[in-house]
Write a structure and sequence with these properties.
Length: 141
């Protein structure tokens, strides 16, 4: 019984498709007959209008060079970062943890000088200390 319903529905679908095809064929014949009676100037205008409509409908070619260019730029940037990072010296080699004195030993008094409250006075008299250092270097040599 289901087969009969399915077949009936299938026939109805085929029947509608057949009606559409018949209608399309009839429309095509009528349009072809009406176009046969047109003069050359009208046919030319219709052809130009058709070409213009088709040209407007065609999607314009996009320049697809943006994607490869962006990908190449990203790869070059990544390579530069990796190369720079692999050749950069480690943090310990760049800056010593504590300043060294003239003897090569670090002392805790240097840290006390920098971290103390007196450091503001040192910065205020910075020109004097620069002059004093220049005098000491001049008297050594």
């Amino acid at each position: 019984m289901n087969d009969e319903i399915d077949n009936g529905a299938g026939h109805a679908g085929n029947n509608q498709t057949g009606l559409r095809q018949g209608w399309i064929e009839q429309s095509r014949r009528l349009l072809d007959q009406s176009a046969e009676g047109l003069d050359a100037a009208t046919l030319s205008r219709l052809n130009r209008a058709r070409q213009a409509a088709l040209a407007a409908h065609r999607p314009r070619r996009r320049q697809h060079w943006f994607l490869p260019a962006g990908l190449a730029s990203t790869c070059v940037l990544l390579l530069a970062v990796v190369a720079w990072h692999s050749y950069a010296p480690s943090g310990a080699a760049r800056m010593p943890a504590l300043p060294l004195t003239a003897t090569g030993n670090s002392s805790g008094s240097d840290i006390d000088l920098v971290s103390g409250d007196d450091s503001l006075e040192l910065y205020q008299d910075l020109e004097f200390y620069a002059w004093l250092d220049a005098q000491d270097q001049g008297s050594d040599g």
